[in-house]
Amino acid sequence: MTRHQKDPRPRRPRPGLAAAIGGWSARHRKTAVFGWLLFVVLATVLGGMAGSVQTTDQDEGIGQSGRAEQMIHQAGIDSPATETVLIQAKGFTATDPRFRAAVNDTIGAVKATGAASAIASPYTDGAIAPDRHSALVTVTMAGDPDTAGDRVAPVLAAVAATQAKHQELTVQEFGDASADKWFNDSFTHDFSRAEWTAVPLALGILLIAFGALVAAVLPVLLALTAFIAAGGLVALSSHFLHTSDDASSVMLLVGLAVGVDYCLFYLRREREERAKGRSPEAALAIAASTSGRAVLVSGLTVVVAMAGMFLTGIADFKAMGLATILVVITAVLGSVTVLPALLSMLGDRVAKGRVPFLGRRMNAPSEDGSRFWRAVLGRVLRRPMVSAGIATAFLLALAAPLLGMHTANLTFAQQLPKGNTLVAAQQRIADAFPGNPNQATVVVTSDRIGSPAMATALADFKKQAVATGMLHEPITVTPYPAKHIELVDVPMAGSGNDTTSGNALKALRDTVVPHTFGAVDGAQAAVTGQTAGSEDFNAQMTGSLPAVFAFVMGFAFLLMLLSFRSVTVAVTALVLNLLSVAASYGALTLVFQHGVGASLIGTAGVGAIESWVPLFLFVILFGLSMDYHVFVVSRIKEAHDRGLATRAAVAHGITSTAGVVTSAAAIMVAVFAVFGTLDMESMKQMGIGLAVAVLIDATVIRAVLLPSLMSLLGERNWYLPRWLSWLPDFGHGETAAELPEPRGAEQPADRLTV
Predict the structure, then answer these.
(1) Which stretches make up the SSD domain (predicted)?
(2) What is each CA distance from 749 to 174, 269, 387, 742, in whole angstroms?
(3) Which of 78, 234, 298, 334 counts the highest number of beta carbons within 10 A?
(4) 495-551: pLDDT as tens digits
(5) 3-state secondary structure at position 363
């Protein structure tokens, strides 16, 4: 054959990245397995040795409140953690000897703990309510305020002992340290409960899905090792970008869900090909080329979506984004490297440990899908226009409440479960002393602290603040003349994140401060506090939304376009994901803002959605929804490329993936729903929002709306403008296409189906 003659033999397409990695792992099984174990151990040990660095108030501060925190930090002022002990009597006043005895016993008991640097009596600082039935003992915690929660237990015990001694009065404590202790204890307890609940749930669902112990354990073990390794990587990276407790929760949530799902996709395809009679090598090659590729695309989509969180400029969001990116990358790495090696080692022994009844029931080939999903799809494809209309109307109706969604940084009382003793103490204090503990802090810096001009400005400030009717006495001033700064604490009307609080903050920032401290030459003033931080956070979130939405949707569109070489598929993916997210927002608003069905999950309508939850749900759902979309559409495209008409390809793709999508969705919903049972309201909202969205995505979207739309579009599904024909063709199922047909009975396989 001369160099000008064409080689008549058909060229074998070059394997894709996932197929190449899977092939290498299958050929170098020990290297892949021990390399993975070494990676997990090294990441864990190095992360433990380095320790994690948590975000601080200076990291988290944004807007004017963030500037105020920076002013305090730069002046070298460490605001001590304070505790407030309420002493209250119904039948007598603070002048009664019994009342005085309770106050004195409280002060004595707290002083005996050695945990307080200062204790203020209400009889010396005037912290007695106007009706004279309530008084406050103010306790200043000794030591670092950031660790006060670790040392407050003796103080709480001392107050509880005083309450037991004076049962005719109410003696309750609330403050910075006790709140930190509750959150730390709750987080540790919730995190542990989530781990010990989510893992058995996932394992149980996999046992039902596979009907075999080895096949069920494999994805869970890989997901857990990926999560452990990612934890070490997060600890190491926290020295460059600080992490947070929220980031740890999110990492567990996402890591377990995607880690199990990715392994499930891979294992399911390998078992399906073996059930057809493929050789072990061929089955693994097909799984690597198809499901492995879908895992890569899905993982990349989640990573890109989570990268959008960096555009918010909010420290906690950056921490959550980085933690999620690291755990997803680790899960993808494990799925495409060590999983093929393990499957190559185990062969058909992966089907060992069959569960009675379930194992036998799962023996039938699954290519045509379950009878239930064939029946559903048959009705959908017979009337695609009607099906699409009904599904869209349902999703829009569910999404409607989001138009009235109110977001806010939830107050302490809103975050905690109903009936919590700390919440009760805080409410009693707020009722007896309006505006306390909801306070704003005005931070004033000037070279003239203590001068007549500043004294006049302070007097004017107090007068104008009280005159608003929304800012109250007592206004407390803490000057630091040597550091050229003073802190002015102002009690505010409202609960902290309601309209009343917002109006009070607006009056303080826009009118009172500019007309008083702002009139002094060289003085700078900024307002911080709970309400101020919430307002600034919401403003930052609102301002960053367009950039985040554009970034996530733009890159998701490009990824889908490159993956499927179809503008229609890319646009359809965006529209369906937006519908899923909108429906989740609506359900979230209905339950947590308006309280519809809230009692079923142990909460009540708190009137607001935690500020960070909607944006977090958007980016993570946009990534996670692609898991199913890429997996399902890949099978449809694979069938279409083999010569099936679009309608037949849709039917084949949906029914053949229905079982694995159902199992994967059940695992995600179960894991996310676990977080809906936790004590902290923000975790509940996150978990329920994700669970609802995945449930909608795996049923209404994938089983009804996607097939009906693709059926209506027909061959237009694969539309690619001529000017985009240069886009690379990554191919779908090329390994399966080039292999000979399975020989059925000549190559029996230990069938295992989902």
Answers:
(1) 216-345
(2) 65, 14, 39, 11
(3) 298
(4) 777 788 889 999 999 999 999 998 888 899 999 988 888 888 888 888 888 888 899
(5) coil
